[in-house]
Amino acid sequence: MTKKITAAALVCLLSLSVAGAAERLGVAVYPGATYDPVTTELLVMDPSIEGAAYRTSDDIGKVAAFYQKQGLVLLKVGSPSKEYARFGKAKSRVNVVVQQPWKDRKSKAMMQDTLILIMEETEKF
Hints:
Blueprint: H1 2-19, H2 21-24, E1 34-35, H3 37-43, E2 49-56, H4 60-69, E3 73-77, E4 84-88, E5 94-99, E6 102-103, E7 110-111, E8 114-121
Antiparallel strand pairs: 1-2, 2-8, 3-4, 4-5, 5-8, 6-7
């Protein structure tokens, strides 16, 4: 029983520390977006990436407008699906990627909500 509680507490603390990655990187999380632990885990599997993933039911235009108002520099708009935007934080390696729809890398399903990745490329290799 004690081992289960300890393991659960450790997982909870790890989730909280990763969920706070966006704040540590100096980027606001989109209001009402929920932390996505599974996508975050896939994101940070790359040892050169620190960050977190969030999801919202709001459309990509509204989310992109929020990040533009935060003073982030728009780096790229569109992709073959035209539903993609990438923002950069000045004088840093911090990026915000907003995408809708997006393909869940674990389930391979196409997701219709908006994915928000807040990440920094580090030199952890």
